[in-house]
Amino acid sequence: MFIRQYTPVLISAFVFSIADMADALVVGNRMGTLGLAAIAFAVPVYMFFNVIMHSFGLGGSIEFAKKMAKGKEEEARSSFHGVLVTLIVISVLIAVLGNLFIDPVLVALGVSPSMPQLFQASKTYLQLIITAAPFFFFDYGMGYYLRNDDMEKEASICSGIGNVLDFSLNVILVLIFNMGVAGAGIATFVGVAVSSIIEIIFMCQKRSHLKILPLKPDFSRVFACYKTGLASCISYIYSFVFIWLGNNAIIRLAGEMGVAVFDIVQNISNLMLYIFNAVAMASQPIISTYEGECNYDECDRLQILAIKTVSISAAILTLLTALFAPYICKLFGVFDEAAVTYGSYALRVFCICMLFAGLNLIISNYFTARNIIFPAFLISTLRGIAIIIPVALICILLGKTAFWFVYPITEIVTFVILMFYLKFYYNNSARVKKEKPVRIEDDRIFKTTLGSDITKLGPAVQEIEAFCEKWEASMKQQYYVQMTVEEMCSAIIQNGFKKDDPSQNWEIDLTLVAMEDHEFSLHIRDNATSFNPFDMSKKSLDDMEDSDSDFNALGMDVIKQKAKDFYYRRYQGFNTMVVMI
User: Structure pTM?
Assistant: First the structure.
Protein backbone atom coordinates (compact mmCIF):
# COMPACT_ATOMS: atom_id res chain seq x y z
CA MET A 1 0.00 0.00 0.00
CA PHE A 2 2.80 2.41 0.93
CA ILE A 3 4.70 2.02 -2.35
CA ARG A 4 1.49 2.48 -4.35
CA GLN A 5 0.84 5.73 -2.50
CA TYR A 6 4.46 6.90 -2.33
CA THR A 7 5.42 6.77 -6.01
CA PRO A 8 2.93 9.35 -7.35
CA VAL A 9 3.38 11.55 -4.26
CA LEU A 10 7.17 11.56 -4.73
CA ILE A 11 6.77 12.55 -8.38
CA SER A 12 4.37 15.26 -7.29
CA ALA A 13 6.89 16.43 -4.66
CA PHE A 14 9.59 16.91 -7.29
CA VAL A 15 7.17 18.76 -9.54
CA PHE A 16 6.00 20.96 -6.66
CA SER A 17 9.56 21.76 -5.59
CA ILE A 18 10.59 22.67 -9.13
CA ALA A 19 7.52 24.88 -9.46
CA ASP A 20 8.29 26.53 -6.12
CA MET A 21 11.84 27.16 -7.25
CA ALA A 22 10.73 28.27 -10.71
CA ASP A 23 10.28 31.91 -9.70
CA ALA A 24 13.72 32.06 -8.09
CA LEU A 25 15.42 30.09 -10.89
CA VAL A 26 13.97 32.12 -13.75
CA VAL A 27 13.90 35.55 -12.08
CA GLY A 28 17.40 35.01 -10.68
CA ASN A 29 18.77 34.29 -14.14
CA ARG A 30 16.99 37.32 -15.61
CA MET A 31 17.35 39.90 -12.81
CA GLY A 32 20.21 38.53 -10.66
CA THR A 33 20.37 39.21 -6.93
CA LEU A 34 17.68 41.95 -7.14
CA GLY A 35 15.07 39.47 -8.38
CA LEU A 36 16.09 36.81 -5.85
CA ALA A 37 15.89 39.35 -3.02
CA ALA A 38 12.41 40.53 -4.12
CA ILE A 39 11.11 36.95 -4.09
CA ALA A 40 12.85 36.23 -0.77
CA PHE A 41 10.92 39.01 0.97
CA ALA A 42 7.64 37.39 -0.15
CA VAL A 43 8.51 33.98 1.34
CA PRO A 44 7.08 34.80 4.82
CA VAL A 45 3.70 35.37 3.17
CA TYR A 46 3.89 31.87 1.67
CA MET A 47 4.62 30.57 5.18
CA PHE A 48 1.55 32.40 6.50
CA PHE A 49 -0.55 30.77 3.76
CA ASN A 50 0.92 27.37 4.61
CA VAL A 51 -0.05 27.61 8.27
CA ILE A 52 -3.72 27.92 7.37
CA MET A 53 -4.16 25.78 4.26
CA HIS A 54 -1.97 22.85 5.39
CA SER A 55 -3.37 22.80 8.94
CA PHE A 56 -6.96 22.64 7.72
CA GLY A 57 -6.06 20.28 4.84
CA LEU A 58 -4.03 17.81 6.90
CA GLY A 59 -6.22 17.87 10.01
CA GLY A 60 -9.45 17.73 8.02
CA SER A 61 -8.26 14.86 5.83
CA ILE A 62 -7.23 12.85 8.91
CA GLU A 63 -10.73 13.29 10.31
CA PHE A 64 -12.14 12.30 6.88
CA ALA A 65 -9.98 9.15 6.66
CA LYS A 66 -10.86 7.96 10.15
CA LYS A 67 -14.60 8.44 9.60
CA MET A 68 -14.40 6.67 6.24
CA ALA A 69 -12.50 3.77 7.83
CA LYS A 70 -15.37 3.42 10.31
CA GLY A 71 -17.98 3.53 7.54
CA LYS A 72 -19.36 6.97 8.45
CA GLU A 73 -19.42 8.42 4.93
CA GLU A 74 -22.06 11.11 5.49
CA GLU A 75 -20.27 12.43 8.57
CA ALA A 76 -16.97 12.41 6.66
CA ARG A 77 -18.46 14.42 3.80
CA SER A 78 -20.11 16.97 6.11
CA SER A 79 -16.81 17.45 7.93
CA PHE A 80 -15.11 17.98 4.55
CA HIS A 81 -17.71 20.62 3.58
CA GLY A 82 -17.15 22.48 6.85
CA VAL A 83 -13.39 22.70 6.24
CA LEU A 84 -13.89 23.69 2.59
CA VAL A 85 -16.23 26.60 3.40
CA THR A 86 -13.90 27.80 6.16
CA LEU A 87 -10.88 27.79 3.82
CA ILE A 88 -12.74 29.77 1.15
CA VAL A 89 -13.96 32.46 3.59
CA ILE A 90 -10.52 32.95 5.19
CA SER A 91 -8.67 33.09 1.85
CA VAL A 92 -11.02 35.69 0.35
CA LEU A 93 -10.55 37.92 3.41
CA ILE A 94 -6.77 37.62 3.10
CA ALA A 95 -6.87 38.53 -0.61
CA VAL A 96 -8.98 41.64 0.00
CA LEU A 97 -7.24 42.96 3.12
CA GLY A 98 -3.76 42.11 1.84
CA ASN A 99 -4.18 44.24 -1.27
CA LEU A 100 -5.69 47.12 0.69
CA PHE A 101 -2.70 47.29 3.06
CA ILE A 102 0.10 46.14 0.74
CA ASP A 103 2.58 48.97 1.57
CA PRO A 104 2.46 48.46 5.36
CA VAL A 105 2.82 44.71 4.79
CA LEU A 106 6.00 45.25 2.75
CA VAL A 107 7.51 47.51 5.39
CA ALA A 108 6.68 44.93 8.06
CA LEU A 109 8.44 42.27 5.97
CA GLY A 110 11.63 44.36 6.01
CA VAL A 111 11.54 45.99 2.57
CA SER A 112 12.58 49.62 2.98
CA PRO A 113 11.04 52.35 0.74
CA SER A 114 14.56 53.86 0.70
CA MET A 115 15.46 51.05 -1.74
CA PRO A 116 12.91 51.96 -4.47
CA GLN A 117 13.87 49.27 -7.01
CA LEU A 118 13.66 46.45 -4.48
CA PHE A 119 10.48 47.90 -2.91
CA GLN A 120 8.64 48.13 -6.24
CA ALA A 121 9.74 44.69 -7.40
CA SER A 122 8.64 43.12 -4.10
CA LYS A 123 5.29 44.96 -4.23
CA THR A 124 4.49 43.81 -7.77
CA TYR A 125 5.23 40.17 -6.95
CA LEU A 126 3.49 40.14 -3.57
CA GLN A 127 0.24 41.67 -4.86
CA LEU A 128 -0.19 38.81 -7.32
CA ILE A 129 0.55 36.15 -4.69
CA ILE A 130 -1.92 37.63 -2.19
CA THR A 131 -4.63 37.89 -4.87
CA ALA A 132 -4.17 34.18 -5.61
CA ALA A 133 -4.84 33.21 -1.95
CA PRO A 134 -8.26 31.53 -2.61
CA PHE A 135 -6.71 29.30 -5.27
CA PHE A 136 -3.71 28.46 -3.06
CA PHE A 137 -5.97 27.46 -0.18
CA PHE A 138 -8.26 25.33 -2.33
CA ASP A 139 -5.46 23.66 -4.28
CA TYR A 140 -3.28 22.64 -1.36
CA GLY A 141 -6.12 21.92 1.08
CA MET A 142 -8.06 19.69 -1.33
CA GLY A 143 -4.89 17.84 -2.31
CA TYR A 144 -4.87 16.24 1.15
CA TYR A 145 -8.48 15.17 0.80
CA LEU A 146 -7.97 13.60 -2.63
CA ARG A 147 -5.11 11.48 -1.30
CA ASN A 148 -7.27 10.32 1.59
CA ASP A 149 -10.05 9.42 -0.84
CA ASP A 150 -7.92 6.90 -2.76
CA MET A 151 -7.26 9.46 -5.49
CA GLU A 152 -3.55 10.02 -5.02
CA LYS A 153 -2.92 9.72 -8.77
CA GLU A 154 -5.54 12.37 -9.48
CA ALA A 155 -4.01 14.64 -6.84
CA SER A 156 -0.60 14.19 -8.46
CA ILE A 157 -2.05 14.96 -11.89
CA CYS A 158 -3.56 18.20 -10.58
CA SER A 159 -0.36 19.37 -8.94
CA GLY A 160 1.71 18.19 -11.89
CA ILE A 161 -0.30 20.11 -14.48
CA GLY A 162 -0.44 23.23 -12.31
CA ASN A 163 3.26 23.22 -11.59
CA VAL A 164 4.36 22.43 -15.14
CA LEU A 165 2.17 25.32 -16.27
CA ASP A 166 3.72 27.55 -13.60
CA PHE A 167 7.25 26.71 -14.72
CA SER A 168 6.43 27.01 -18.43
CA LEU A 169 4.80 30.41 -18.01
CA ASN A 170 7.77 31.56 -15.92
CA VAL A 171 10.08 30.78 -18.81
CA ILE A 172 7.77 32.43 -21.37
CA LEU A 173 6.82 35.54 -19.42
CA VAL A 174 10.13 36.23 -17.65
CA LEU A 175 12.81 35.03 -20.06
CA ILE A 176 11.09 35.61 -23.41
CA PHE A 177 8.79 38.58 -22.72
CA ASN A 178 11.07 40.05 -20.04
CA MET A 179 8.20 40.70 -17.60
CA GLY A 180 10.40 40.22 -14.52
CA VAL A 181 8.75 39.53 -11.16
CA ALA A 182 5.31 40.36 -12.60
CA GLY A 183 5.66 37.46 -15.02
CA ALA A 184 6.70 35.15 -12.18
CA GLY A 185 3.67 36.19 -10.12
CA ILE A 186 1.24 35.72 -13.03
CA ALA A 187 2.71 32.26 -13.72
CA THR A 188 2.16 31.22 -10.10
CA PHE A 189 -1.41 32.59 -10.11
CA VAL A 190 -2.37 30.73 -13.29
CA GLY A 191 -0.72 27.50 -12.09
CA VAL A 192 -2.71 27.22 -8.83
CA ALA A 193 -5.93 28.36 -10.52
CA VAL A 194 -5.76 25.65 -13.20
CA SER A 195 -4.79 23.01 -10.62
CA SER A 196 -7.84 23.97 -8.51
CA ILE A 197 -10.20 23.68 -11.49
CA ILE A 198 -8.90 20.20 -12.33
CA GLU A 199 -9.35 19.13 -8.69
CA ILE A 200 -13.01 20.17 -8.86
CA ILE A 201 -13.45 18.05 -11.99
CA PHE A 202 -11.98 14.98 -10.25
CA MET A 203 -14.10 15.59 -7.16
CA CYS A 204 -17.22 15.42 -9.35
CA GLN A 205 -16.38 11.90 -10.53
CA LYS A 206 -18.73 9.10 -9.57
CA ARG A 207 -16.18 7.22 -7.47
CA SER A 208 -15.25 10.31 -5.46
CA HIS A 209 -16.65 10.70 -1.94
CA LEU A 210 -15.76 14.41 -2.00
CA LYS A 211 -18.88 15.70 -3.72
CA ILE A 212 -19.20 19.46 -3.19
CA LEU A 213 -22.95 19.54 -3.88
CA PRO A 214 -25.30 19.34 -2.10
CA LEU A 215 -23.31 21.43 0.35
CA LYS A 216 -24.00 20.33 3.96
CA PRO A 217 -21.17 21.76 6.07
CA ASP A 218 -20.63 20.60 9.63
CA PHE A 219 -18.57 23.20 11.49
CA SER A 220 -18.59 21.40 14.84
CA ARG A 221 -15.23 19.72 14.21
CA VAL A 222 -13.57 22.40 12.06
CA PHE A 223 -11.50 23.85 14.89
CA ALA A 224 -10.55 20.36 16.07
CA CYS A 225 -9.37 19.55 12.52
CA TYR A 226 -7.32 22.73 12.44
CA LYS A 227 -5.82 21.89 15.81
CA THR A 228 -4.83 18.40 14.65
CA GLY A 229 -3.14 19.72 11.50
CA LEU A 230 -1.54 22.65 13.30
CA ALA A 231 0.52 20.28 15.45
CA SER A 232 2.56 19.42 12.34
CA CYS A 233 1.98 22.60 10.35
CA ILE A 234 2.75 25.07 13.13
CA SER A 235 6.30 24.86 11.79
CA TYR A 236 5.14 27.25 9.06
CA ILE A 237 4.47 29.92 11.70
CA TYR A 238 7.95 29.43 13.02
CA SER A 239 9.34 29.50 9.46
CA PHE A 240 7.59 32.83 8.98
CA VAL A 241 9.35 34.24 12.05
CA PHE A 242 12.73 32.78 11.13
CA ILE A 243 12.68 33.88 7.49
CA TRP A 244 11.54 37.37 8.48
CA LEU A 245 14.37 37.53 11.02
CA GLY A 246 16.86 36.04 8.55
CA ASN A 247 15.97 38.46 5.74
CA ASN A 248 16.33 41.47 8.02
CA ALA A 249 19.62 40.22 9.52
CA ILE A 250 21.38 38.95 6.42
CA ILE A 251 20.72 42.11 4.39
CA ARG A 252 22.63 43.99 7.09
CA LEU A 253 25.40 41.38 7.39
CA ALA A 254 26.00 40.62 3.70
CA GLY A 255 23.78 42.98 1.71
CA GLU A 256 21.71 42.03 -1.34
CA MET A 257 24.10 39.13 -2.05
CA GLY A 258 23.38 37.68 1.40
CA VAL A 259 19.60 37.78 0.88
CA ALA A 260 20.06 36.07 -2.50
CA VAL A 261 22.13 33.26 -0.92
CA PHE A 262 19.57 32.96 1.88
CA ASP A 263 16.88 32.50 -0.77
CA ILE A 264 18.92 29.76 -2.47
CA VAL A 265 19.38 27.90 0.83
CA GLN A 266 15.67 28.22 1.57
CA ASN A 267 14.82 26.80 -1.86
CA ILE A 268 17.03 23.76 -1.24
CA SER A 269 15.44 23.47 2.21
CA ASN A 270 12.00 23.45 0.56
CA LEU A 271 13.15 20.77 -1.89
CA MET A 272 14.33 18.68 1.07
CA LEU A 273 11.03 19.15 2.89
CA TYR A 274 8.99 18.27 -0.19
CA ILE A 275 10.89 14.98 -0.53
CA PHE A 276 10.45 14.15 3.16
CA ASN A 277 6.81 15.24 3.09
CA ALA A 278 6.22 12.82 0.21
CA VAL A 279 6.98 10.00 2.65
CA ALA A 280 4.75 11.62 5.27
CA MET A 281 1.86 12.18 2.84
CA ALA A 282 2.10 8.60 1.56
CA SER A 283 2.12 7.05 5.03
CA GLN A 284 -0.39 9.34 6.79
CA PRO A 285 -3.63 8.09 5.13
CA ILE A 286 -2.62 4.46 5.67
CA ILE A 287 -1.59 4.99 9.31
CA SER A 288 -4.87 6.84 9.97
CA THR A 289 -6.81 3.99 8.34
CA TYR A 290 -4.95 1.34 10.38
CA GLU A 291 -5.67 3.38 13.52
CA GLY A 292 -9.38 3.35 12.67
CA GLU A 293 -9.22 -0.44 12.21
CA CYS A 294 -7.31 -0.91 15.50
CA ASN A 295 -4.37 -2.41 13.57
CA TYR A 296 -1.76 -0.84 15.83
CA ASP A 297 1.06 -3.22 14.85
CA GLU A 298 0.62 -2.22 11.21
CA CYS A 299 0.90 1.45 12.21
CA ASP A 300 4.30 0.73 13.78
CA ARG A 301 5.53 -1.40 10.87
CA LEU A 302 4.65 1.30 8.37
CA GLN A 303 6.43 3.92 10.50
CA ILE A 304 9.65 1.85 10.44
CA LEU A 305 9.42 1.67 6.63
CA ALA A 306 8.85 5.45 6.48
CA ILE A 307 11.95 6.10 8.64
CA LYS A 308 14.10 3.91 6.39
CA THR A 309 12.80 5.70 3.29
CA VAL A 310 13.50 9.14 4.76
CA SER A 311 17.02 8.11 5.83
CA ILE A 312 17.95 6.91 2.35
CA SER A 313 16.46 10.05 0.77
CA ALA A 314 18.43 12.27 3.17
CA ALA A 315 21.71 10.50 2.41
CA ILE A 316 21.27 10.95 -1.36
CA LEU A 317 20.20 14.59 -1.07
CA THR A 318 23.09 15.44 1.28
CA LEU A 319 25.67 13.93 -1.06
CA LEU A 320 24.34 15.68 -4.17
CA THR A 321 24.03 19.09 -2.50
CA ALA A 322 27.53 18.97 -1.00
CA LEU A 323 29.17 17.87 -4.27
CA PHE A 324 27.36 20.30 -6.57
CA ALA A 325 27.00 23.35 -4.30
CA PRO A 326 28.77 25.82 -6.69
CA TYR A 327 26.66 24.68 -9.62
CA ILE A 328 23.47 25.08 -7.58
CA CYS A 329 24.38 28.75 -6.97
CA LYS A 330 24.95 29.31 -10.68
CA LEU A 331 21.69 27.55 -11.47
CA PHE A 332 19.92 30.34 -9.55
CA GLY A 333 21.69 33.05 -11.54
CA VAL A 334 24.50 33.81 -9.05
CA PHE A 335 27.78 33.99 -10.99
CA ASP A 336 29.88 36.46 -9.03
CA GLU A 337 32.89 34.53 -7.65
CA ALA A 338 32.53 35.87 -4.11
CA ALA A 339 28.80 35.11 -4.06
CA VAL A 340 29.36 31.57 -5.40
CA THR A 341 32.00 30.89 -2.73
CA TYR A 342 29.76 32.23 0.02
CA GLY A 343 26.71 30.34 -1.31
CA SER A 344 28.64 27.05 -1.61
CA TYR A 345 29.81 27.37 1.98
CA ALA A 346 26.24 28.04 3.17
CA LEU A 347 24.82 25.03 1.28
CA ARG A 348 27.47 22.64 2.62
CA VAL A 349 26.83 23.72 6.19
CA PHE A 350 23.12 23.27 5.58
CA CYS A 351 23.71 19.66 4.43
CA ILE A 352 24.59 18.64 7.99
CA CYS A 353 20.96 19.03 9.09
CA MET A 354 19.22 16.95 6.39
CA LEU A 355 19.05 13.52 8.05
CA PHE A 356 17.91 14.93 11.39
CA ALA A 357 15.31 17.15 9.71
CA GLY A 358 13.85 14.13 7.93
CA LEU A 359 13.66 12.05 11.10
CA ASN A 360 12.06 14.88 13.06
CA LEU A 361 9.43 15.40 10.36
CA ILE A 362 8.48 11.74 9.91
CA ILE A 363 8.15 11.14 13.66
CA SER A 364 5.92 14.22 13.91
CA ASN A 365 3.78 12.87 11.04
CA TYR A 366 3.37 9.51 12.79
CA PHE A 367 1.88 11.06 15.91
CA THR A 368 -0.30 13.45 13.91
CA ALA A 369 -1.70 10.60 11.78
CA ARG A 370 -2.71 8.80 14.99
CA ASN A 371 -4.26 12.00 16.36
CA ILE A 372 -1.73 12.25 19.23
CA ILE A 373 -1.09 15.97 19.09
CA PHE A 374 1.39 16.91 21.82
CA PRO A 375 4.55 15.06 20.59
CA ALA A 376 4.05 16.52 17.09
CA PHE A 377 3.50 19.96 18.60
CA LEU A 378 6.66 19.54 20.71
CA ILE A 379 8.78 18.69 17.66
CA SER A 380 7.43 21.63 15.67
CA THR A 381 7.94 24.03 18.56
CA LEU A 382 11.50 22.92 19.29
CA ARG A 383 12.76 23.07 15.71
CA GLY A 384 10.57 26.00 14.73
CA ILE A 385 11.07 28.58 17.47
CA ALA A 386 12.27 27.38 20.87
CA ILE A 387 15.70 26.41 19.56
CA ILE A 388 16.08 28.05 16.15
CA ILE A 389 15.35 31.66 17.23
CA PRO A 390 17.84 31.79 20.16
CA VAL A 391 20.46 30.00 18.04
CA ALA A 392 19.79 32.39 15.14
CA LEU A 393 20.26 35.43 17.36
CA ILE A 394 23.58 34.09 18.62
CA CYS A 395 24.79 33.17 15.12
CA ILE A 396 23.80 36.60 13.78
CA LEU A 397 26.01 38.20 16.44
CA LEU A 398 28.90 35.94 15.36
CA GLY A 399 28.73 37.12 11.73
CA LYS A 400 27.71 36.08 8.25
CA THR A 401 29.69 32.80 8.18
CA ALA A 402 28.33 31.57 11.51
CA PHE A 403 24.72 32.35 10.49
CA TRP A 404 24.33 29.13 8.46
CA PHE A 405 25.02 26.87 11.45
CA VAL A 406 21.51 27.76 12.65
CA TYR A 407 20.12 24.87 10.55
CA PRO A 408 22.23 21.89 11.76
CA ILE A 409 22.32 23.00 15.41
CA THR A 410 18.53 23.34 15.49
CA GLU A 411 17.75 19.95 13.92
CA ILE A 412 20.34 18.00 15.92
CA VAL A 413 19.35 19.49 19.28
CA THR A 414 15.64 18.90 18.48
CA PHE A 415 16.32 15.25 17.65
CA VAL A 416 18.31 14.69 20.86
CA ILE A 417 15.57 16.25 23.02
CA LEU A 418 12.91 14.23 21.17
CA MET A 419 14.72 10.94 21.80
CA PHE A 420 15.12 11.83 25.46
CA TYR A 421 11.42 12.71 25.73
CA LEU A 422 10.21 9.52 24.04
CA LYS A 423 12.45 7.35 26.20
CA PHE A 424 11.76 8.85 29.60
CA TYR A 425 8.55 10.89 29.50
CA TYR A 426 6.23 9.86 26.66
CA ASN A 427 4.46 6.90 28.28
CA ASN A 428 4.18 8.69 31.63
CA SER A 429 3.08 12.09 30.34
CA ALA A 430 -0.36 13.02 31.73
CA ARG A 431 -0.95 15.34 28.77
CA VAL A 432 -0.17 12.64 26.21
CA LYS A 433 -2.37 10.13 28.03
CA LYS A 434 -5.20 12.64 27.90
CA GLU A 435 -4.78 13.19 24.14
CA LYS A 436 -4.20 9.58 23.10
CA PRO A 437 -7.19 8.06 21.33
CA VAL A 438 -8.72 5.23 23.33
CA ARG A 439 -6.61 2.23 22.42
CA ILE A 440 -8.49 -1.04 22.38
CA GLU A 441 -6.74 -3.67 24.48
CA ASP A 442 -4.85 -6.21 22.39
CA ASP A 443 -6.86 -9.18 23.71
CA ARG A 444 -10.05 -7.47 22.50
CA ILE A 445 -8.79 -7.65 18.90
CA PHE A 446 -8.91 -10.82 16.83
CA LYS A 447 -6.90 -10.85 13.59
CA THR A 448 -6.35 -13.50 10.97
CA THR A 449 -5.50 -13.75 7.26
CA LEU A 450 -7.20 -16.09 4.81
CA GLY A 451 -6.15 -17.12 1.33
CA SER A 452 -8.18 -18.34 -1.63
CA ASP A 453 -8.65 -21.80 -0.12
CA ILE A 454 -12.23 -21.79 1.14
CA THR A 455 -11.57 -24.87 3.32
CA LYS A 456 -9.49 -22.64 5.67
CA LEU A 457 -12.60 -20.58 6.42
CA GLY A 458 -14.07 -23.18 8.80
CA PRO A 459 -11.18 -23.14 11.34
CA ALA A 460 -11.16 -19.33 11.28
CA VAL A 461 -14.88 -19.22 12.08
CA GLN A 462 -14.31 -21.57 15.04
CA GLU A 463 -11.65 -19.22 16.40
CA ILE A 464 -14.05 -16.29 15.97
CA GLU A 465 -16.74 -18.22 17.86
CA ALA A 466 -14.35 -18.74 20.79
CA PHE A 467 -13.39 -15.05 20.68
CA CYS A 468 -17.05 -13.97 20.83
CA GLU A 469 -17.74 -16.31 23.75
CA LYS A 470 -14.73 -14.91 25.61
CA TRP A 471 -16.19 -11.40 25.40
CA GLU A 472 -19.67 -12.49 26.41
CA ALA A 473 -21.41 -11.97 23.09
CA SER A 474 -25.08 -12.90 23.07
CA MET A 475 -26.10 -16.01 21.16
CA LYS A 476 -27.65 -13.80 18.50
CA GLN A 477 -24.43 -11.76 18.16
CA GLN A 478 -22.33 -14.92 17.90
CA TYR A 479 -24.57 -16.25 15.18
CA TYR A 480 -24.54 -13.05 13.13
CA VAL A 481 -20.78 -12.52 13.49
CA GLN A 482 -20.06 -16.05 12.27
CA MET A 483 -22.63 -15.76 9.50
CA THR A 484 -21.20 -12.42 8.34
CA VAL A 485 -17.66 -13.78 8.18
CA GLU A 486 -18.72 -16.96 6.37
CA GLU A 487 -20.96 -15.23 3.82
CA MET A 488 -18.69 -12.31 3.04
CA CYS A 489 -15.47 -14.30 2.81
CA SER A 490 -17.00 -17.02 0.66
CA ALA A 491 -18.52 -14.36 -1.61
CA ILE A 492 -15.11 -12.69 -1.98
CA ILE A 493 -13.34 -15.99 -2.69
CA GLN A 494 -15.93 -17.09 -5.25
CA ASN A 495 -16.55 -13.77 -6.98
CA GLY A 496 -13.56 -11.51 -6.34
CA PHE A 497 -10.55 -13.79 -6.67
CA LYS A 498 -9.46 -14.72 -10.19
CA LYS A 499 -8.90 -18.45 -9.98
CA ASP A 500 -7.15 -18.46 -13.37
CA ASP A 501 -4.31 -16.27 -12.05
CA PRO A 502 -2.15 -18.59 -9.89
CA SER A 503 0.65 -15.98 -9.70
CA GLN A 504 -1.51 -13.69 -7.53
CA ASN A 505 -1.27 -14.14 -3.77
CA TRP A 506 -4.92 -13.60 -2.85
CA GLU A 507 -5.54 -12.59 0.75
CA ILE A 508 -8.38 -11.59 3.06
CA ASP A 509 -7.42 -9.74 6.25
CA LEU A 510 -9.98 -10.10 9.04
CA THR A 511 -10.03 -7.89 12.15
CA LEU A 512 -12.78 -8.39 14.73
CA VAL A 513 -12.91 -5.92 17.63
CA ALA A 514 -14.88 -6.47 20.84
CA MET A 515 -15.93 -2.93 21.71
CA GLU A 516 -16.51 -1.66 25.25
CA ASP A 517 -20.24 -1.17 24.57
CA HIS A 518 -20.73 -4.90 23.83
CA GLU A 519 -20.80 -4.30 20.08
CA PHE A 520 -18.50 -6.07 17.62
CA SER A 521 -16.74 -4.19 14.81
CA LEU A 522 -15.73 -6.38 11.87
CA HIS A 523 -13.15 -5.05 9.38
CA ILE A 524 -12.47 -7.02 6.19
CA ARG A 525 -9.83 -6.07 3.63
CA ASP A 526 -9.01 -8.11 0.51
CA ASN A 527 -6.83 -7.67 -2.57
CA ALA A 528 -9.41 -9.04 -4.98
CA THR A 529 -10.61 -7.25 -8.06
CA SER A 530 -13.09 -4.46 -7.32
CA PHE A 531 -15.97 -6.34 -5.71
CA ASN A 532 -18.60 -5.10 -3.24
CA PRO A 533 -20.43 -8.02 -1.57
CA PHE A 534 -23.16 -5.65 -0.35
CA ASP A 535 -24.17 -5.05 -3.98
CA MET A 536 -25.19 -8.68 -4.38
CA SER A 537 -28.98 -8.68 -4.68
CA LYS A 538 -31.30 -11.47 -3.63
CA LYS A 539 -32.18 -13.71 -6.55
CA SER A 540 -35.07 -15.97 -7.26
CA LEU A 541 -35.40 -18.91 -4.89
CA ASP A 542 -35.97 -21.15 -7.94
CA ASP A 543 -32.39 -20.52 -9.10
CA MET A 544 -30.69 -21.12 -5.75
CA GLU A 545 -29.80 -24.76 -6.33
CA ASP A 546 -27.89 -23.86 -9.48
CA SER A 547 -25.47 -21.29 -8.10
CA ASP A 548 -23.52 -20.80 -4.87
CA SER A 549 -23.56 -17.07 -5.47
CA ASP A 550 -27.35 -17.09 -4.94
CA PHE A 551 -26.84 -18.30 -1.37
CA ASN A 552 -24.28 -15.51 -0.89
CA ALA A 553 -26.75 -12.98 -2.25
CA LEU A 554 -29.45 -14.11 0.16
CA GLY A 555 -26.89 -14.05 2.98
CA MET A 556 -25.91 -10.49 2.11
CA ASP A 557 -29.54 -9.41 2.38
CA VAL A 558 -29.75 -10.90 5.87
CA ILE A 559 -26.47 -9.24 6.92
CA LYS A 560 -27.64 -5.83 5.70
CA GLN A 561 -30.92 -6.20 7.57
CA LYS A 562 -29.40 -7.36 10.87
CA ALA A 563 -26.19 -5.30 11.00
CA LYS A 564 -26.26 -2.08 12.99
CA ASP A 565 -24.20 -0.48 10.25
CA PHE A 566 -22.23 -1.62 7.19
CA TYR A 567 -19.95 0.06 4.69
CA TYR A 568 -17.83 -0.74 1.62
CA ARG A 569 -14.98 1.25 0.12
CA ARG A 570 -12.39 0.55 -2.58
CA TYR A 571 -9.19 2.01 -1.12
CA GLN A 572 -5.52 1.75 -2.12
CA GLY A 573 -6.24 -1.19 -4.44
CA PHE A 574 -8.10 -3.09 -1.71
CA ASN A 575 -11.76 -3.81 -1.02
CA THR A 576 -12.43 -2.66 2.55
CA MET A 577 -15.61 -3.42 4.45
CA VAL A 578 -16.85 -2.51 7.92
CA VAL A 579 -19.79 -4.23 9.65
CA MET A 580 -21.07 -3.25 13.10
CA ILE A 581 -22.89 -6.06 14.92
Answer: 0.70
